[in-house]
């Protein structure tokens, strides 16, 4: 994605290119095939939703053809995880690969153990505690309940991004706010959930017997199989 004349412009395919993903079904099938997929263009050519879709289909408002809407549909289904999983940027991870990412990113820690060992902040703990109590919450409600309102804790977005990178939190759904008349307005906002509450703690932690380095090597090795010309350092940089 680049900015042209102050507007976001996607670096995707031409709308007449037969290689492009045309529907959410095709995107879902592709994610399940490759295992995980960044949303926006990165260091590995062709390894993103952006580069696999028509550049003029984005933000069109077309529920059928707009990839911006596809992410909401896939997130709401819950089978494929969606969140800021790639260097703080959005992407998808299949159910199959999620425990491997959790093992690599967490290094064997559930959140409580991470916090007790001084590896997680009080800001992160407040968010985790609220999600443990309420299961799923829209961002603006979570922000308030976790004490990030005016005069409270700072850097809500950064804290949430870090919790997603460590696979503790996922984006489970999207919705628009409603006014007093029940009418929807504004941009869609994200609904957050603990990954353990979606997939179950035992499943999310099912690869904990693997060392973090082994999990990392498995992920990078998979990337190199998909893109043989990609260097190891590029693969490592992508997954953070």
Would you mind describing this structure in some detail?
- By secondary structure, the protein is α+β, with helices and mostly antiparallel strands.
- It has a domain at 107-208: Orthogonal Bundle (Arc Repressor Mutant, subunit A).
- The protein is built from twelve helices and eight strands.
- A three-stranded antiparallel sheet has the order 3-5-4. Strands 6-8-7 form a three-stranded antiparallel sheet. A two-stranded antiparallel ribbon has the order 1-2.
- Strand 1 and strand 2 form a beta hairpin.
- Helix 4 (98-106) packs across helix 11 (212-226) and helix 11 crosses helix 12 (232-239).
- 35% of the residues are buried.
- The mean pLDDT is 92.
Topology:
Blueprint: E1 2-4, E2 7-9, H1 24-34, E3 36-38, H2 49-52, H3 67-77, E4 81-86, E5 89-93, H4 98-106, H5 111-116, H6 122-134, E6 136-138, H7 139-145, H8 156-165, E7 169-178, E8 184-194, H9 195-199, H10 201-204, H11 212-226, H12 232-239
Antiparallel strand pairs: 1-2, 3-5, 4-5, 6-8, 7-8
Helix pairs in contact: 4-11, 11-12
In a nutshell, what does this entry contain?
By secondary structure, the chain is an alpha+beta fold. The protein has helices spanning 24-34, 49-52, 67-77, 98-106, 111-116, 122-134, 139-145, 156-165, 195-199, 201-204, 212-226, 232-239; strands spanning 2-4, 7-9, 36-38, 81-86, 89-93, 136-138, 169-178, 184-194. The chain is built from 12 helices and 8 strands.
List keywords for this structure.
240 residues; globular; 8 strands; three-stranded antiparallel β-sheet; 12 helices; single chain; alpha+beta; Arc Repressor Mutant, subunit A
């Amino acid at each position: 994605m680049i900015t042209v004349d102050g507007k976001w412009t996607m670096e995707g395919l031409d709308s007449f290119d037969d290689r492009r993903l045309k529907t959410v079904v095709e995107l879902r099938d592709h994610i399940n095939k490759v295992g995980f997929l960044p949303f926006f263009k990165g260091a590995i050519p062709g390894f993103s939703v952006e580069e696999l879709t028509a550049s003029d289909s984005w933000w069109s408002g077309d529920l059928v053809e707009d990839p911006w809407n596809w992410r909401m549909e896939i997130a709401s289904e819950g089978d494929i995880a969606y969140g800021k999983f790639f260097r703080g940027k959005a992407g998808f991870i299949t159910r199959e690969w999620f425990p491997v990412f959790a093992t690599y990113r967490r290094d064997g820690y559930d959140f409580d153990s991470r916090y007790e060992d001084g590896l997680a902040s009080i800001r992160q703990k407040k968010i985790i505690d609220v999600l443990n109590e309420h299961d799923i919450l829209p961002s603006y409600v979570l922000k308030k309940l976790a004490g990030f309102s005016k005069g409270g804790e700072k850097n809500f977005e950064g804290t949430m991004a870090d919790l997603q990178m460590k696979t503790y939190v996922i984006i489970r759904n999207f919705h628009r706010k409603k006014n007093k008349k029940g009418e929807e307005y504004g941009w869609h906002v994200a609904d957050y959930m603990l990954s353990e509450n979606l997939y179950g703690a035992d499943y999310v932690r099912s690869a904990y017997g693997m060392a973090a380095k082994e999990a990392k090597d498995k992920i990078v090795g998979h990337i190199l199989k998909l893109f043989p010309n990609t260097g190891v350092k590029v693969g490592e940089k992508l997954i953070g």
